[in-house]
């Protein structure tokens, strides 16, 4: 009793138009990197053109200003402050909850750890109470927002009628990789600026005002395996240039983590009759049975880490194109915004008026370490807020998501990747 976790509301960040970066601009950024050879240049163009990312994603100001090779700490802090102010101001104004009412504040930004902490910066700006419980999480990767929610969920068990704010983003500005290691330059192509602020409570009086209620959350960690631990990590290349390494074994590791996570969380949301059916077929049937996951959830909120990630999860879960459309469109419109990506996907579902009272939403995300975290929400009322998608939602899905520069750069696909 009294241990519910309600999602009151959330606000995603939409940077200003001058921060938009299209394929042509990405090509000019690549051309500025004097460490790249002809083959490296072709490799990066191939990734960009085939990434599934569209022409309206956003980058940090220092890259727009051609300062990607000489970032400062202040670039990273200003990038975060711009996002904090926009989303938190809207969240407090929209919900009517005052910053002084917040009991718990969790900020997760993997690649930026400043002093004072990012949480302290928010507390200072909004003059929050002196007894607020603040947590600053780093190094958690793309799955950090669900880790933050799990932290809040556990605090709620010992504190009644509390409010918590989770702030989720990634620092792109000071973390541009300027080398030519193919395993490290991939992140430059996939990650974009964004972020989300989320208001949670366990106050039962807010049940009728809240959007969703958390039903279950499962975290799976494969960190005890050297292979899993090393497949995605911040490191330096052989020239001492800092970047994020993505190993060739990452898809295999993600599949392992995902399989373990599904095995546990499925028992928490699937109907009893579906579990019985699966067990009976497993022991008496001739074929390996497949769980009907749609028997327990209505919507699938998949982390838009890339086209390969979305497609792999789609095939493993037996989903249709309708199920993964929100993730594909989020990748196309906003790119991979790391831990906040899930909330852009949820926003797409809401803007499309797909979420109805009583529906179940399954969020699935992956992160370095290696982790797979997922949770199931129950929708408490019909949702139709346009949120960050606004007027854009009527243009999605487009007739084609093919890169408009495919014709210009089509020659890069004639060579086979190693």
Automatic annotation (TrEMBL):
The active site is at residues 142, 221, 299, 303, 332, 336. Transmembrane segments: none annotated. Its EC number is 2.3.1.199. It catalyses: a very-long-chain acyl-CoA + malonyl-CoA + H(+) = a very-long-chain 3-oxoacyl-CoA + CO2 + CoA. GO terms for biological process: fatty acid biosynthetic process. Residues 296-378 form the Beta-ketoacyl-[acyl-carrier-protein] synthase III C-terminal domain. It comes from the Eukaryota. The keyword Cell membrane does not apply. GO terms for molecular function: fatty acid elongase activity. Residues 1-287 form the FAE domain. Keywords: Acyltransferase, Transferase. GO terms for cellular component: membrane. The keyword Acyltransferase applies. Pathway: Lipid metabolism; fatty acid biosynthesis. Belongs to the thiolase-like superfamily. Chalcone/stilbene synthases family. This is very-long-chain 3-oxoacyl-CoA synthase.
């Amino acid at each position: 009793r009294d241990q519910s976790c309600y999602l009151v509301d959330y606000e995603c960040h939409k940077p200003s138009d001058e921060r938009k970066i299209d394929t042509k601009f990405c090509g000019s950024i690549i051309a500025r990197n004097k460490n790249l050879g002809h083959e490296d240049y072709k490799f990066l163009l191939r990734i960009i053109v085939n990434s599934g990312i569209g022409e309206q994603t956003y980058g940090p100001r220092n890259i727009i200003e051609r300062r990607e090779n000489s970032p400062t700490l202040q670039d990273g802090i200003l990038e975060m402050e711009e996002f904090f102010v926009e989303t938190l101001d809207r969240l407090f104004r929209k919900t009517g909850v005052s910053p002084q009412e917040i009991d718990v504040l969790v900020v997760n930004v993997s690649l930026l750890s400043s002093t004072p902490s990012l949480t302290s910066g928010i507390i200072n700006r909004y003059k929050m109470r002196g007894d607020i419980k603040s947590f600053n999480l780093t190094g958690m990767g793309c799955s950090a927002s669900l880790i933050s929610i799990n932290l809040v969920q556990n605090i709620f068990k010992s504190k009644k009628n509390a409010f918590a704010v989770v702030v989720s983003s990634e620092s792109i500005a000071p973390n541009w990789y300027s080398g030519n290691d193919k395993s490290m330059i991939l992140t430059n192509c996939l990650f974009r600026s964004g972020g989300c602020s989320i208001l949670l409570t366990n106050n039962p009086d807010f049940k009728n005002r809240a959007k969703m209620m958390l039903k279950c959350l499962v975290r799976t960690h494969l960190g005890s395996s050297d292979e899993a631990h090393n497949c995605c990590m911040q490191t330096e290349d052989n020239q001492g240039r800092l970047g994020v390494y993505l190993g060739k074994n990452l898809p295999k590791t993600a599949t392992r983590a995902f399989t373990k996570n599904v095995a546990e969380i499925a028992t928490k949301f699937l109907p009893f009759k579906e579990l019985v059916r699966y067990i009976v077929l497993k022991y008496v049937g001739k074929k390996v049975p497949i769980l009907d996951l749609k028997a327990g959830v209505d919507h699938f909120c998949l982390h838009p880490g890339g086209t390969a990630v979305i497609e792999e999860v789609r095939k493993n879960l037996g989903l249709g194109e309708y199920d993964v459309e929100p993730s594909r469109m989020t990748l196309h419109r906003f790119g991979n915004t790391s831990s906040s990506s899930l909330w852009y996907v949820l926003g797409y579902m809401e803007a499309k008026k797909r979420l109805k009272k009583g529906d179940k939403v399954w969020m699935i995300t992956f992160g370095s370490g290696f982790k797979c975290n997922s949770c199931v929400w129950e929708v408490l009322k019909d949702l139709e807020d346009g949120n960050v998608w606004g007027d854009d939602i009527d243009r999605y899905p487009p007739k084609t998501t093919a890169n408009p520069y495919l014709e210009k750069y089509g020659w890069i696909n004639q060579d086979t990747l190693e």
